[in-house]
Each structure stands twice: as C-alpha cells, then as structure tokens.
Automatic annotation (TrEMBL):
This is Uncharacterized protein. It comes from Rhododendron molle (Chinese azalea).
C-alpha cells in the first residue's frame, strides 16, 4: 500500500467541519473523512494519505496545471535545466525505470533509453542538449524518475513549444490500469505510468499525461510518443485508435472520443506507438540484442526505421506487429500458448497511414 505523508511543507490549507474533514490527494481527488481517521486510500491513484494526529486535517493545494487541469505546487525548487534554444525545433524526454530493489524490477528499461537516445541523436538528428533522460542511474537527483521529476520533465518538454517543433516522449517501465472515476474511458479503466516512487507518491494517470503534453500542443507542432510498457494502448488518451478491419484486411480509425472530456490537441498532431493493447503485457527479452535485455517495442521500432527508407506509418505498424509476433513464436515454440503482444497506433487526428510518411 502506498503511503503519502502530509507535512507542513506540502500542505497549505485546512478544511474542517465538526464531524467530517476534507482532504485532497495530490492527484486532485477530494476525500471527506470522519474526524480521527489517521489514513485514507485515494480511490483514484491508490496513494494512502496519512493525516497528522493533531486536531486538524491538512488539505494540500490541488494540482492545477496551466491548461485548466492541474496546478502542481513543487516541494522543492525546480532544477536549472537549460531550455533548448527559445524556439528549439527538436526535443525529447526519455524515461527508463528499472525499479531497483523492488520485487517488480524491469530489466531492460535503462537499456531502452540508451538505445533510443543513440537513435534520436545519430539517426534522427536530435541535438544532445535537446534530450532530457530520466533513469535511476543518474547522479543528478532531479534526473531520477520520481513522480515530481517526471511532471517537471513534461513541463520542460512543452515549454515554448510552437509551430514547427518536433517533440518525442519515450517511456520504458511499468504500466498499469486503475478504475476510471471521471467517465472518460470506454473500458472503465485509466492507464497509468508508474514512477520509481509510485508506492509512496502514487501513479501518473493518462488523464494527466494527456492534459500536460497533448492538449497544449499548438498548431504546426507534432508529438511522437513511444511507450514500451504493459497496458499501454491508450496511454496518451488520444481520440483515435488504429484498428484492423478483419473483414477487409486493412487498418481503420476507431473513434474513442467521449462526451465527458476533450482529449485532442490545440491544433498540433500527437501520435503514439504503444507496446501493446490496454489488456496486454509487453515483453522484455534478450532475443533481439544477444545478451542485452531490451523492450520488444523499443528494439523493433528502431530496427524498422533504420532498415527501411521512406517508411509509412502503416508499414511501420505492420513491421512492429510482425517482428514481435515472430519473436514470440521463436521463444515459445510455434504451438505453445503465449500471451499476445500487439503494438498499437493512436492519434489526435485521422490520417491515411498507408500514404503518410513516418517523420519525426
């Protein structure tokens, strides 16, 4: 169970009644609790709020971002991350979390960040200074993938974004689902990113990711997300999912929009390649790179783009699915049962995946 201590440092308001106290979790959910209750578990992000034993309940300031969703009150000063040139055309945030010392360790995530960094710099021309990588191997405490540092990295990615900019968000780590409480998920579950400290600080939901790096994206700017984690099909909560029409044998766009919330951009284009569907798990394996453990999506994505010039989005999606399917057969045997991992493509807008060239 995650424990989220409430201290005078990160609390600003107190609200009490004679019988009930109202406590807001850092994810934004407001709880009403009887006086005398010492802990409460947030029904949204599953953090456990520990209330002080004095006569009051602290109410942390809600996480309200500038776009009207959440505004985060930092617990410590922001690091002096030098921004890209004021109007830098390319920048990327890469997050790899191995959860060292935890029972659910992910072995290939840091390797995935290394591979993707090399790919972006040496293949796609991203300047080294335009990449912000968060892993547990970093000595700078602001570059460790904690919940707060990841939120800060998202803000850095979007700072000064304008038409012509090309942004990349790469994530390799744990992904999970939690019950949806705002009615914007067709399956009733929100997808979530698990920071290295998620046991104590809680998870980052797809609602927040969408609000932070998708909705503010301006006209003429584009964002590509490569998400190598379990249950990641709708990780960015984008409005359209690319689905296979089994009758006709071609891909079509499935409309995932709901009446409860707008999940599109501010005119820009957001595209996400995910390791698998929301009800599937993703593969970490040495099958691709000898003795080096990598995520199946990460390796297959880089290999496909490097090996085929003029790749379209449809061709890239087909290559990812074929490569991972064949690798699973090779590992498990042709007749052995296996858990399918089918990479997914989602977007903020519909387009012809068979003719649109893949460009970052």
């Amino acid at each position: 169970m995650a424990v989220l201590p409430i201290t005078p440092q990160n609390t600003t308001n107190i609200r009490k009644t004679k019988e009930m106290a109202r406590v807001r979790c850092t994810c934004g959910v407001l709880l009403s609790l009887p006086q005398g209750v010492s802990t409460a578990r947030c029904p949204r992000c599953y953090a456990t709020i520990v209330c002080p034993s004095n006569d009051g309940y602290y109410l942390p300031e809600a996480n309200q971002y500038n776009n009207g969703y959440y505004h985060h009150q930092p617990l410590r000063p922001l690091p002096q991350l030098s921004p890209i040139s004021v109007h830098g055309k390319k920048r990327a945030v890469l997050i790899g979390i191995s959860y060292q010392g935890q029972p659910n360790r992910v072995k290939g995530s840091v390797n995935d960040v290394r591979f993707m960094t090399h790919f972006l710099v040496n293949w796609l021309g991203f300047p080294n200074e335009s990449l912000l990588a968060l892993t547990e191997e970093e000595r700078n405490p602001y570059l460790v993938p904690t919940k707060q540092n990841i939120r800060m990295a998202f803000r850095w990615l979007m700072e000064g974004c304008q038409s012509g900019d090309s942004l990349v968000f790469f994530y390799s780590g744990l992904g999970s689902q939690v019950p949806d409480f705002d009615g914007d998920e067709a399956d009733g579950f929100d997808e979530s990113l698990c920071p290295v400290d998620y046991h104590t600080e809680g998870k980052i939901l797809d609602d927040e990711i969408n609000a932070t790096i998708v909705r503010p994206l301006p006209y003429g700017a584009k964002l590509h997300a490569i998400i190598d984690t379990c249950r990641s099909g709708t990780f960015l909560d984008l409005p359209f999912m690319c689905m296979m029409n089994n009758r006709q044998g071609n891909y079509i766009w499935d409309d995932h929009r709901t009446s409860t919330a707008y999940k599109g951009t501010s005119g820009g284009t957001a595209i996400c390649f995910s390791a698998c569907d929301d009800n599937q798990t993703s593969l970490d394996t040495t099958a691709f790179a000898s003795d080096v453990v990598t995520g199946a999506l990460t390796y297959s994505f880089i290999e496909a783009v490097q090996n085929e010039r003029g790749l379209t989005y449809g061709r890239l999606l087909h290559s990812l699915r074929t490569n991972i399917r064949e690798t699973q057969k090779r590992l498990n045997g042709p007749n052995a049962p296996s858990t399918p991992q089918v990479p997914q493509l989602s977007s903020s807008e519909k387009f012809d995946i068979y003719s649109k060239p893949f460009t970052i």
